[in-house]
């Protein structure tokens, strides 16, 4: 579905965001405790970035599906890939709709 090099980069980027920036991303929950605006804004920014790796993998999957379709190759994993793309789309859209 995606290239090995791209998948590895996405995993490393996810690790950085989830582990390295995960604590900073929770700062947006400190709004009600009276935290400074800069801290809450920093937390909101990092929290919003958590969906970026999955979205990038989704775009790469779409590209590879289009390439396989253009080449006339049958794809036995078509429906699982479509499901993954749907989940990727909703994960990209959910932070915008939730307001967090």
Task: Give an account of the 3D structure.
The two termini are 31 Å apart. Helix 1 packs antiparallel against helix 4 and helix 4 (52-71) runs antiparallel to helix 5 (78-98). The longest helix is centred in the last third of the chain and has 21 residues, at 78-98. This protein has 5 helices and no strands. The model has no long low-confidence stretch (mean pLDDT 77). By secondary structure, the protein is an all-alpha fold. It has one domain (4-98).
Write the layout of secondary structure elements.
Elements: H1 4-20, H2 22-25, H3 37-48, H4 52-71, H5 78-98
Concise synopsis of the structure shown:
This protein has 100 residues and is mostly helical.
Cα-atom radius of gyration? 17 Å
- As for the number of domains, it is 1
Extract low-pLDDT stretches.
Answer: none
Which percent band covers the strand fraction? under 5%
Separation of the first and last Cα atoms: 31 Å
Name the descriptors.
100 residues; elongated
